[in-house]
Amino acid sequence: MTDLDIDELMENLAQCRRCGICRNAVYEDMGFDGVCPVWKNSAGFETSFMRGRIQVAIALLEGKLVKTAENAESLFTCTLCGNCTSICAAEFDPAKCLESVREVLCDIPNDIRDSIADKIRANNNPYVENNNLRRDWVKEVGFEIPNHSDVLYFTGCTAGLKLPGTAKSTAKVLKAAEIDFAVLEDEPCCGSIMIRTGRVDEARENAKKVFDRISKSGAQTILVTCAGCAKTLREDYTERFGFNIPKVLHVVEYLPSLITNSEINLKRSTAPLKVTWHDPCHLGRTLKIYEEPREIIKALPGVELVEMETIRDAAMCCGSGGGVRSYDSHLAKKIAADRVRSAMEIGADVLATACPFCEFNLKDGAALIGSNIRIVDIVDLIADHLE
To answer: Is the residue at 278 inside a domain?
Structure first.
C-alpha cells in the first residue's frame, strides 16, 4: 500500500502532459545535445519520451485506460536518468514522478518487475546467484578482511557477483591507504531496483534487513562503489524509510583527500593515457558528485582527462537504469553504444565510471559496435597506478 498523496501526484503530472520541450531540445549553452536517451534510440513514438509516458500514466490513474501490462509498458522503458528534469522550465521532476507512478500502479501485472523483486526476496540479489558467492573475491585479495570495523565497504550485488574485480581493486586501494575496513558476511541487496520499479513495500522490508545488518556491524562510515547503492542508502533509506543509517560515501568522495595528502602512493602510467569520465546518473544528477572523480583522474601520473561533449548535468545515461536493461536489453545496449561513441570521438583510450551497472552495460554497448575502448571502474584505474 502506497503512502503517496495521489492528488498531489496527479497535480504534478499535469505539468508534463503538453510541453514536450525535453523530447529533442538542444541547449548548447548548458551542454545538452538532445535530452532523452530512449527517444534518441527508439522509433520515435510519443510514448518514447516523458510527455507521452505521463499522458499514459494519467489515463491509467484516471481509469481512462484499462490497467493491463500492455497499456503500462511505456512506463517501464524510461531509465529515470533525470536529464529531462535538469532542463525542465516548469521545474518539474519527471523522473521522480514516474517512479511514484510505478509505485502507485504496482497492482498492474508486470512479470519482469515482479520476478526481480521475488529474486531479491529469495536470494538477497537480483541475479539468481547463491548470495554466499558475493564474498568469494575476499579470498583473492591476499589479506584478511574482517566483518566489523568503523569503515564498512558495502560491496553491492553487481560488484560482488558480476564484476568482482571492482571489489578487489577497492580493497587494494583502501589497504594501500592503510584504511581498516570490513565487509558484511551476509550482505543483502540494497533494494534500489525494487524502489525504481515500484515495488516499494518489499523495498521497505528489504531496507530494514540491510539496516539491521549494517547496525550490527558497528560501522560509522559506509563506503560504496555503486552509484545506485549510494543514492538508495543515502537518500531513500533516510528520507523515504526513516532509517538513521551511518554516513554513506561513494569511494570517489572518500579517496581524493587520501591521494592529495599522499596517503596513497601512485606510479606513472607506462604510456600516456587519455581517460574520459562517464557521470553515472545517480552519482551525478542525483547526488551532484561531479568534481571528485575528475580530481582523482587528474591526480593519476601520466593520465590526461579528456571530456565528452555531454557531461555533468547534461551527461547522457548509460542506458541500464530504471530497470530498462531488464525490460529491453537491446535498447539499453543501443544507448550505451551512443555513450561509447562519444568517448571514441574524443580519442579516449579509457572510459572510466563509478558504477558497476554502468560499466556492465557500457561494455555491452562497446561490444554491440565492435569498439575495443577499455571500460573500467575508477578504482581499477587507481589500482593500476598503485606503487
So the answer is: yes
Contact partners, residue 137, CB within 8 Å, separation at least 6: 155, 160, 164, 167, 168, 171
pTM beyond cutoff 0.85: yes
d(CA 342, CA 209) in angstroms, rounded, equals 40
**For the chain, how many residues are written?**
387
CB contact at 8 A, 203 and 194 = yes
Residue type present at position 268? R
Q: pLDDT tens for the chain, 387 residues: list them.
A: 567 788 888 888 888 877 777 776 666 556 566 688 998 888 878 888 889 999 999 999 999 999 999 999 999 999 999 988 888 877 788 899 999 999 999 999 999 999 999 999 999 999 988 988 999 999 999 899 988 899 999 999 999 999 999 999 999 999 999 999 999 999 999 999 999 999 999 999 999 999 999 999 999 999 999 999 999 999 999 999 999 999 999 999 999 999 988 889 898 877 889 999 999 999 999 999 999 999 999 999 999 999 999 999 999 999 999 999 999 999 999 999 999 999 999 999 999 999 999 999 999 999 999 999 999 999 999 999 998
Alpha carbon distance 53, 75 (integer Å): 6
Could you give the CA distance from residue 236 to residue 245 in angstroms, rounded to a whole number? 11
Q: Look up the CATH number of the domain holding residue 360.
A: 3.40.50.1860
Transcribe 329-376 into DSSP letters: HHHHHHHHHHHHHHHHHTT-SEEEES-HHHHHHHHHHHHHTT---EEE
In 3D space, the residue among 220, 253, 218, 249 whose CA is nearest the CA of residue 233 turns out to be 249
Return the H-helix or E-strand segment holding 50.
helix 50-62
Extract the C-alpha cell encoding 147: 566483518
Distant-in-sequence, close-in-space partners of 387: CB < 8 Å, separation ≥ 6: 265, 266, 267
Burial class (CB in 10 A: 0-12, 13-18, 19+), 374: middle
Q: Are 281 and 317 in contact (CB under 8 A)?
A: yes
Mention every residue, 6+ apart, whose C-beta is less than 8 A from residue 75.
53, 56, 57, 98, 101, 102, 105
Residue 1 lies in a domain: no
Structural domain including 322 reads 264-384
Same domain, 204 and 303: no
